[in-house]
Amino acid sequence: MRQFIPMRRVLAVATLGALFWAAPASWAAAPPEAASCIACHGAGGMGNPAAGYPRLAGLPEQYLADQLRYFADGARNNAVMSGMAKPLSAAQVTALATYYSKLKPSGKPAPMPTGAAAAEGERLALRGDWEKGIPACIRCHGPGAVGVGENFPALVGQSAAYIEAQIKAWKDGSRSGDPLGLMHTVALRMTDAQTQAVAQWLAAQPLSPTKSASAKH
User: Fold this and answer.
1) Class for the domain spanning 7-102
2) CATH 1.10.760.10 occupies which residues in the chain?
3) Binding site, annotated residues
4) How many CB atoms lie within 10 A of CB 20?
5) Residues making up the binding site for heme c
6) Rounded to whole angstroms, how far apart are CA atoms 86 and 72?
7) Could you tell me the CATH superfamily of domain 115-214?
8) Cα maximum dimension of the chain
9) Which of 37, 59, 139, 155 has the fewest C-beta atoms lying within 10 Å of its C-beta?
């Protein structure tokens, strides 16, 4: 007698197979816990821009470990990530952070915005708005916004949706853990229009800094 296999199971197996073949060569070295990360953050750790899931690949190891701890203890308020992070042991947190920090980021930036919003985004990222006490993004996140040290991660390679959501989270207090409360203070001074403009401009920048994206006018 021929056994009937539910279509749901067939689709599940096909999906897992596709994820396996899409995984980078380094996936063989991934800790077991990373299997739970791939659905949202992708096989290469570059996230899902359409859904607002962030890039993890190439971010500092200590930064990644800190974020998992913040999700676990509530410093970052996200129901899904809190549920993922709370059961992790210290060794598992370290293993995940180490693995994703060693992945090489890849991919193309989002399309460059146009018009007044693009000009405003560039101004905020490269020069800031000192009349409102808003420093340029590159002051802390480095030339090209590629990140500096363990506390100031790369902004390039992240989607506009994610960057905008995080600025709003700093603003409303649902995210904390920033050095000296710096991001909370900056976010409070930004309008929604400024938040959207700088997020869209940063998302359109290349992973490697260019002269225009690194200039401190």
Assistant:
1) mainly alpha
2) 7-102, 115-214
3) 37, 40-41, 137, 140-141
4) 11
5) 37, 40-41, 137, 140-141
6) 4
7) Cytochrome c-like domain (1.10.760.10)
8) 78
9) 139
Nearest CA-CA partner of 39 in 58, 6, 11, 16: 16
Question: What digits encode the pLDDT tens for the residues 9-44?
Answer: 433 434 444 444 445 555 558 999 999 999 999 999
Distance CA(75)–CA(98), nearest Å, equals 21
The dihedral formed by the CA atoms of 37, 41, 42 and 46, expressed in degrees to the nearest 10: -140
CB 137 within 8 A of CB 202: yes
Residue 112 CA to residue 114 CA, distance in Å, equals 7
CA atoms within 13 A on the CB side of 159: 14
Residue 56 CA to residue 46 CA, distance in Å, equals 6
Give the pLDDT confidence of 141-158 residue by residue, as tens digits. Answer: 999 999 999 999 999 999
